[in-house]
Design a protein that fits this description.
The complex is a heterodimer. By secondary structure, chain A is mainly α. Helix content of chain A is 75%, strand content 0%. In chain A, helix 2 runs antiparallel to helix 3 and helix 4 packs antiparallel against helix 5. Chain A starts with 5 loop residues before the first helix and ends in a 12-residue tail after the last helix. By secondary structure, chain B is an alpha/beta fold. Chain B has a six-stranded antiparallel β-sheet with strand order 3-2-1-6-5-4, with helices on both faces. Chain B has a six-stranded parallel β-sheet with strand order 15-14-16-17-18-19, sandwiched between helices. A five-stranded mixed β-sheet of chain B has the order 8-10-11-13-12. Classes of the chains: A mainly alpha, B alpha/beta. Chain B: This is Ethylene receptor. Chain B: GO terms for molecular function: ATP binding; ethylene binding; ethylene receptor activity; metal ion binding; phosphorelay sensor kinase activity. Chain B: It catalyses: ATP + protein L-histidine = ADP + protein N-phospho-L-histidine.
Chain lengths: 135, 740
């Protein structure tokens, strides 16, 4: 399964001269949001009595954000996470949280690498080709 | 005397009898000898005589008979034995020949008799042939006469000459006493004596046309013998002494041009006839011969043809004269028109320059004046001056443009241009006015509309601006929607534009633009006048005194130059109206990206389908909020984002046309927002469309959304294409429920 799905391509399509940094903005927003959510989740699951409702809402948010970006794997992890929340399965939740964190790190690294490479290319005088969406 | 062997007569010979016998025998012999000689002589003379050898036989027989009789002369007296022998021989021979001849005659005589019969037969035949020869000769004579007559008749195309010649020639050929022609009068009820042979000036005798004798003549195409006492034949007062000659009458058909149909012969019932009467000399005991009657009939037909030719010629001469006159008149009219046009063009050219110069001065100086320090009253005055002079300049331009258009001297300046940009620019120009009047203007361009087109950009923009400007001008409240799409062949053939027959061609497409407004509308009677120059709708003119009424006329000229069609539909006063035009544009050969010279003013990527569409996005999740905002921005919408329900309550207004809200966030009842919005905006056309964005796929969400009165539910994630189609569907149908 890929790290990013078609949604990311959609985002790239939205970038144009009037909105040159759209993708970067959204991605950084995503990073900030996710880190905050992950921190909240960690804290929530550390509590003696876990408020599953709040956990669920956080996971829901994370799921929304990641699907907006197109981070498929995170989204799938979140789906699993939510299931465990409904069951109120603490171990399951913890493991899912770990998985989500892992996926998040993966996505973050990949995206950062991507941006760095794009900057290098632009600095070297080239242009970044737009990927064709095929439907 | 001793007894002699000579035979002696029994009685003593009578001297006289002997003498007579002697003489007769001699003459018989002579005759017998001379007959064959005569025969030979005459036969030789005649040169043709069959049966020569019969003659020989006969001759021999006669000669021998003669010889016998001659020899008999010697036997009267004592004769010797030799004589007796000769005599005997002669007699024997004679007997043989005469018997042979007798036998021969049995065969010969019937032949000779039949010769006589044949001779009789041949004589009869000769007589018959003579008779026939006579007939043929007469016919040939007749034919010759007819030809001569026809030649005479046809050698002229003058009606009177034809008729006169006919009578003269007929009279001469047939040695007539009198020949007359009766023509039907204009009323057709009488026959009038028109021409005679002998009388110089026929007095106007008329006879009614319904006489039985006349009917008899008219009903047959043969020459009919009529009585010399009938009214048509009584041309001269009868002297009473002499027997009038036989009279014959024949009909002469008078053919009119109108009688001839292309594939039909003229109807007999519509024929009019003239009557020709021919009289043999009185006291001549001449009879009308058949060949003479035939001659008369043929002549009558020829006369008819000749008359019709003459009539046709007259007609064509008349028509030619008429045409020549008309030609001259048209020529002079054309020259006058050309002079007038030249004069007008000169005038316009001069006025153009003369009018524009002061106009320019006024406008320039007024704008400069605006820049200086002015009191508020002065500023108001200067603004009014500027506005009025701008109007005047527009008017002058319009008039000049229109006159150039009428001449046909206006030519489109064809070039490749950005079609979408034209629409956007028009929209931008119109937006200020529209927003002042609080009108909503929506532009909807079809996805398959090419971005670049080949045509006259300036004139297209002018047309579009004019049409949209009219829509804005005549709409006091409501909205205006502009749609542009590629017209397919079915929609090209609009029943409301029946005279427009567009032909789809390679490298060209037909752009169809519809501008619908919710304004005051136009009553159907006024619609035809909209495109005529200087004609203004009275009702509109009262309300809005600006504008010269030229705008639509110019638009129509431009559209026609672009091989298109423009028309306006309206259901009536107060029901708004829709202006539709179709123009033909070319498709540029090169695609956009390789041609950097066509950098448009607006961003190239994406199609801004919904410029100015005010949208409110409510989403708690920052990332998805910014993604949705990015999507909508990309589509050209005017996006405002809120992150909570309370904010949404505060911000939402009737200016927003669509509200997107995220409803799958548990704990937040987005449905409340929908209910609230419904309460706040009671009138449907002011209420924004509420669309739920949700990631959940169950029917419960959808049902809930429908229950609270949302207009649509969209499943996340939303792609660009999906958002675009969703928005266009929403705006068109005002409801959208995606099937889950």
């Amino acid at each position: 399964m890929g790290v990013l799905d078609n949604q990311f391509l959609q985002l790239q399509q939205l970038q144009d001269e009037s909105n040159p940094d759209f993708v970067a903005e959204v991605v950084s927003l995503f990073f900030a949001d996710s880190e905050r959510l992950l921190n909240d989740l960690t804290r929530a699951l550390d509590q003696p009595t876990i408020d599953f409702k709040m956990v669920d809402s956080h996971v829901h948010q994370l799921k929304g954000s990641s699907s907006s970006i197109g981070a498929e794997r995170i989204k799938n992890a979140c789906v699993a996470f939510r299931n465990f929340c409904e069951e109120q399965n603490i171990e399951g939740c913890m493991s899912c949280l770990q998985q989500v964190k892992q996926e998040y790190c993966l996505v973050k690294n990949k995206l950062e690498t991507l941006f760095r490479m794009e900057q290098q290319i632009v600095a070297a005088g080239g242009s970044i080709p737009m990927m064709e969406l095929s439907f | 005397m001793e007894s002699c062997n000579c035979i002696e007569p029994q009685w003593p010979a009578d001297e006289l009898l002997m003498k007579y016998q002697y003489i007769s025998d001699f003459f018989i012999a002579l005759a017998y000898f001379s007959i064959p000689l005569e025969l030979i002589y005459f036969v030789k003379k005649s040169a043709v005589f069959p049966y020569r050898w019969v003659l020989v036989q006969f001759g021999a027989f006669i000669v021998l008979c003669g010889a016998t009789h001659l020899i008999n002369l010697w036997t009267f007296n004592m004769h010797s034995r030799t004589v007796a022998i000769v005599m005997t021989t002669a007699k024997v021979l004679t007997a043989v020949v005469s018997c042979a001849t007798a036998l021969m005659l049995v065969h010969i005589i019937p032949d000779l008799l039949s010769v006589k019969t044949r001779e009789l037969f041949l004589k009869n035949k000769a007589a018959e042939l003579d008779r026939e020869m006579g007939l043929i000769r007469t016919q040939e004579e007749t034919g010759r006469h007819v030809r001569m007559l026809t030649h005479e008749i046809r050698s002229t195309l003058d009606r009177h000459t034809i008729l006169k010649t006919t009578l003269v020639e007929l009279g001469r050929t047939l040695a007539l006493e009198e020949c007359a022609l009766w023509m039907p009068t204009r009323t057709g009820l009488e026959l009038q004596l028109s021409y005679t042979l002998r009388q110089q000036n026929p007095v106007g005798y008329t006879v009614p046309i319904q006489l039985p004798v006349i009917n008899q003549v008219f009903s047959s195409n043969h020459a009919v013998k009529i009585s010399p006492n009938c009214p048509v034949a009584r041309l001269r007062p009868l002297a009473g002494k002499y027997m009038p000659g036989e009279v014959v009458a024949v009909r002469v058909p008078l053919l009119h041009l109108s009688n001839f149909q292309i594939n039909d012969w003229p109807e007999l019932s519509t024929k009019r006839y003239a009557l020709m009467v021919l009289m043999l000399p009185s006291d001549s005991a001449r009879q009308w011969h058949v060949h003479e009657l035939e001659l008369v009939e043929v002549v009558a037909d020829q006369v008819a043809v000749a008359l019709s030719h003459a009539a046709i010629l007259e007609e064509s001469m008349r028509a030619r004269d008429l045409l020549m006159q008309q030609n001259i008149a048209l020529d002079s009219a054309r020259r006058e028109a050309e002079t007038a046009i030249r004069a007008r063009n000169d005038f316009l050219a001069v006025m153009n320059h003369e009018m524009r110069t002061p106009m320019h001065a006024i406008i320039a100086l007024s704008s400069l004046l605006q820049e200086t320090e002015l009191t508020p009253e002065q500023r108001l005055m200067v603004e009014t001056i500027l506005k009025s002079s701008n109007l005047l300049a527009t008017l002058i331009n319009d008039v000049l443009d229109l006159s150039r258009l009428e001449d046909g001297s206006l030519q489109l300046q064809i070039g490749t241009f950005n079609l979408h940009a034209v629409f956007r620019e028009v929209l931008n120009l119109i937006k200020p006015i529209a927003s002042v009047k609080k009108l909503l203007v929506a532009l909807n361009l079809a996805p398959d509309l090419p971005e670049y087109a080949v045509g006259d950009e300036k004139r297209l923009m002018q047309t579009l601006l004019n049409v949209v400007g009219n829509a804005v001008k005549f709409t006091k409240e409501g909205n205006i929607s502009i749609t542009g799409f590629v017209a397919k062949s079915e929609s090209l053939r609009d029943s409301r534009a029946p005279e427009f027959f567009p032909v789809p061609i390679e490298n060209h497409f037909y752009l169809r633009v519809q501008v619908r407004d919710s304004g005051s509308g136009i009553s159907p009677q006024d619609i035809p006048n909209l495109f005529t120059k200087f004609a203004q709708n009275q009702a509109i003119a009262l309300r809005n005194s600006s504008g010269s009424g030229l705008g639509l006329a110019i638009c129509k000229r431009f559209v026609n130059l672009m091989e298109g069609h423009i028309w306006i539909e309206s259901e009536g006063l107060g029901k708004g109206c829709t202006a539709i035009f179709i123009v033909k544009l070319g498709i540029p050969e090169h695609s956009n990206d390789s041609n950097l010279s066509f950098i448009p003013k607006m961003p190239v990527h994406g199609q801004t389908n919904f410029p100015g569409l005010k949208v409110l996005v409510m989403d708690e999740n920052g990332v998805s909020r910014s993604v949705t905002k990015g999507l909508l921005l990309h589509l050209g919408c005017d996006v405002m984002t809120v992150s909570s329900v309370e904010e949404c309550f505060q911000v939402v207004s009737h200016e927003h046309q669509v509200v997107f809200m995220d409803v799958c966030v548990p704990g937040i009842d987005g449905y409340e927002v929908a209910v609230h919005i419904h309460d706040k905006f009671t009138r449907r056309h002011e209420r924004p469309l509420i669309v739920a964005l949700t990631g959940s796929t169950d029917n419960l969400t959808k049902d809930n959304c429908m229950r609270v009165g949302m207009d649509g539910v969209i499943l996340k994630p939303v792609s660009l294409e999906k958002m675009r189609s969703v928005l266009s569907d929403l705006l068109e149908h005002r409801v959208l429920f995606e099937s889950m």
